UniProtKB/TrEMBL annotation:
Top-level taxonomic group: Bacteria
Protein name (Swiss-Prot/TrEMBL): Phosphatase PAP2 family protein
Record keyword Hydrolase present: yes
Keyword S-adenosyl-L-methionine set for record: no
Membrane topology: Multi-pass membrane protein
Entry-linked InterPro entries: PAP2/HPO (IPR000326), PAP2/HPO_sf (IPR036938)
Pfam families, sorted: PAP2
Origin organism lineage: Bacteria, Pseudomonadati, Myxococcota, Myxococcia, Myxococcales
Keywords: Cell membrane, Hydrolase, Membrane, Transmembrane, Transmembrane helix
Subcellular location: Cell membrane
Length: 260
């Protein structure tokens, strides 16, 4: 419920006049930012333990007739060149708002606001890793013979939903827009947002053409990235507090949020 409240709060703020501040646009607080970075970073980094996860049950050749009609045309695609294009486009798109903020605000204030934009990307990555492990959707390349056998049978082949590359680039683009709106520079923010969405579109196209994701994975990634790009700046503007606590069964440490 907290995330939903902050999401609609950010939309309401965007519709009205945005206050002009000298910078930084977002207030950093140790009790908020440290849990976000530590928890999201820990979950997102679990990607490096990917080989320990399960692979695709139907590999090495899955039945494409089981794919929904919207995604079926992408089943079996595989092109390493498009994968390289997507990686380059992802790095460039992620860098655009981060560099622009530092150039506009200066190093000290810019890095503070960059942390909030980076948190939007980090939380999005953590969510993508969690969902992809839970869903276990086979990637398009598993439905054909073009990809090498090891790329159709490893654990990474079972993590199609949703596109983390697209989600991350959209999240940083939206968070960058919110940052410049907060600074009272909406025109610059929208220009950079347009560049970010163009880059994200190229990333999405490349992820489908390379055989890494279905179109629905890309659309879901864009939607989730938009949400995280709105929510993370809104959390910093709202004064919400993030507090660690132990579950009732003593099974582990959790982090909860509350509005002041």
């Amino acid at each position: 419920m907290l995330a939903v409240q902050l999401f609609f709060c950010s939309l309401t703020t965007e519709a009205g006049a945005e206050p002009s501040v000298r910078g930084p646009a977002h207030k950093l607080r140790l009790e908020l930012d440290l849990p976000i970075v530590l928890v999201a970073g820990s979950i997102a980094s679990s990607f490096f333990f990917l080989p320990e996860a399960r692979g695709v049950a139907c590999a090495p050749n899955c039945d494409r007739s089981r794919i929904n009609r919207f995604d079926r045309a992408a089943a079996g695609l595989y092109d390493p060149t498009w994968s390289t294009v997507g990686d380059i486009a992802t790095v460039a798109t992620l860098a655009v708002p981060l560099v622009a903020i530092v150039v506009d605000e200066g190093l000290e204030n810019g890095l503070r606001d960059d942390l909030v934009v980076a948190e939007a990307m980090l939380v999005t990555s953590a969510l993508q890793v969690s969902v992809s492990y839970a869903v276990g959707r086979p990637r398009p390349r598993v439905y054909g013979d073009d990809a090498p056998l090891d790329e159709r049978t490893d654990a990474n082949a079972a993590r199609s939903f949703f596109s983390g590359h697209v989600a991350d680039t959209v999240a940083t683009s939206v968070a960058g827009l919110r940052t410049f709106q907060r600074l009272g520079k909406p025109t610059l923010g929208w220009v950079l947002f347009g560049v970010g969405i163009a880059g994200s579109s190229l990333v999405g196209l490349s992820r489908v053409a390379s055989g890494a994701h279905f179109p629905s994975d890309v659309i879901a990634g864009a939607a989730i990235g938009t949400g995280m790009g709105l929510v993370l700046p809104a959390i910093h503007e709202s004064g919400v507090q993030m507090l660690p606590f132990v579950g009732a069964d003593g099974g582990g440490l959790m982090v909860g949020g509350r509005l002041p």
